[in-house]
Design brief:
Helix content: over 70%
Shape: globular
Number of helices: 10
Radius of gyration: 18 Å
Amino acid sequence: MPDFAMATVCLLTWIAPEAIHPGVIPWILLTMLVEFVVVHSAPFMGLQLVSEQPAARKVRNVVAIGGFYSIFLLGFSLAFHAWWPFVSFWLLTLNRLTVLLFSQAKDGRARETLQASWGAGALCYLMGVGITTILPVPRLGVSTGIVSSLHLTGGGLWIDQPWRVLAFATFYFAATGMLEATGFAALVPKPPARA
């Protein structure tokens, strides 16, 4: 459900940013940067959770890995003058690990499901970036006036054309939500047939 909720917020912001609040656009932009870090870090944390180590060591390793990746979030926080990327990082990571936390991994196949989850996240992220960078993306409700009112600093495609990041985020969260809803069944290899 969190993925579908995020996709809905992103789509509504893309269609009618004034109805939501134009200030949500920079939040979504930063969320997608944070999600980039999550796509990289969640598999390492998940592999610790499904390992054969004692519970205390699992927790220690997950916190250490999360602490390392939090350093990247410090850079985002300083650049955007916001503290919430740290909280978002852990919430988005928890969302990526729900496949383990809510037993979507069936028949003792947690490792395979985790790998499929990571692969799906990385694939959706890369495809979303590629599609919304190369293909024309309509502005929908993101007018020139809204873009100038955001006072985004820096440069690049997402800063100059923020509707692209809204399209990307809509695609990414909807696609990962659909794959997660099925327990990544399309990506988890079938168990070997018993003789």
